[in-house]
């Protein structure tokens, strides 16, 4: 029969690098759907303005989300998240582009939950949105003639070996303009210098606040 370790002993075992890596992956996998839920919660709250009964239910949902986030933050290898910085100063995925007209928004993220949440949020505000899961898909989309972007929102770490800065450069090469861009990362210190070197490109720390995303879209696409 397997001995049940006290919690302190079990956590001490995570000093082994392989265990620590495993916990880091688990924490990341928990944070991704939570971030999508927070984005959609923000969109629902905006849509429910003037509906007190719905807002009361959303308050309860927000409390539950915050409780879950505290639980995740307490897990081993859950690194403290930096505060949200000021950001004011293959073939394309099915279902994109859609909504709105004129310059659109390109969303690039290899996590489908996050990508779809951003799409729904921004389309709900009337924006035309295209999306891709990788640098390769971004290039395919651009090669297909979809280059009318007024804003790029991209995750920094992409699973196909590309990164968010390469996405920004690919879009700008295709459009011939310094398209405004927001690069999202869990480790802003690692890419801050690279971001600072790019004109009209800003950085945001995960998880991105819904209001920040919408304000940036309004500034870039008035």
Keywords:
single chain; 222 residues; alpha/beta; five-stranded parallel β-sheet; 5 strands; 51% helix; 12% strand; globular; disordered N terminus
Q: Let me know the average pLDDT.
A: 75
Helix content: 40-55%
What are the low-pLDDT stretches, counting only 5+ consecutive residues below 50?
A: 1-17, 80-98
**Number of alpha- plus pi-helical segments:** 8
- Our Rg estimate from Cα atoms comes to 19 Å
Q: Write down how many β-strands occur, each being a DSSP E stretch of 2 or more residues.
A: 5
Largest sheet composition = 5 strands, parallel
Give the overall shape.
globular
**CA-to-CA gap between the ends?**
65 Å
Strands in their spatial order, largest beta sheet: 2-1-3-4-5
Structural class: alpha/beta
Strand content of the residues, in percent?
5-15%
H/E series, N to C? HHHEHEHEHEHEH
Description:
This protein has 222 residues and is α/β, with parallel strands linked by helices. It is 51% helix and 12% strand. Helix 7 (188-196) links the parallel strand 4 and strand 5 (201-205). Helix 2 (17-47) packs antiparallel against helix 3. The termini are far apart. Residues 1-17 and 80-98 have low confidence and may be disordered.
């Amino acid at each position: 029969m397997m001995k049940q370790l006290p919690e302190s002993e079990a956590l001490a075992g995570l000093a082994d690098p392989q265990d620590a890596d495993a916990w880091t992956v688990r924490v990341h996998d928990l944070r991704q759907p939570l971030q999508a839920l927070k984005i959609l919660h923000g969109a629902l709250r905006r849509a429910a303005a003037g509906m007190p009964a719905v807002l009361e239910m959303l308050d309860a949902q927000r409390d539950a989300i915050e409780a879950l986030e505290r639980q995740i933050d307490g897990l081993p290898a859950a690194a403290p998240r930096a505060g949200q910085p000021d950001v004011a100063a293959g073939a394309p995925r099915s279902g994109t582009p859609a909504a709105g007209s004129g310059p659109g928004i390109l969303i690039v993220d290899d996590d489908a939950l996050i990508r779809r949440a951003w799409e729904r949020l921004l389309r709900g505000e009337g924006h035309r949105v295209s999306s891709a899961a990788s640098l390769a898909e971004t290039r395919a989309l651009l090669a297909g003639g979809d280059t009318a972007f007024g804003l790029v929102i991209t995750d920094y770490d992409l699973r196909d070996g590309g990164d968010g800065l390469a996405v920004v450069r690919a879009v700008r090469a295709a459009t011939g303009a310094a398209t405004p861009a927001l690069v999202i990362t869990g480790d802003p210190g690692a890419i801050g210098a690279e971001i600072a070197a790019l004109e009209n490109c800003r950085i945001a720390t995960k998880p991105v606040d819904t209001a920040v995303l919408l304000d940036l879209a309004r500034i870039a696409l008035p």
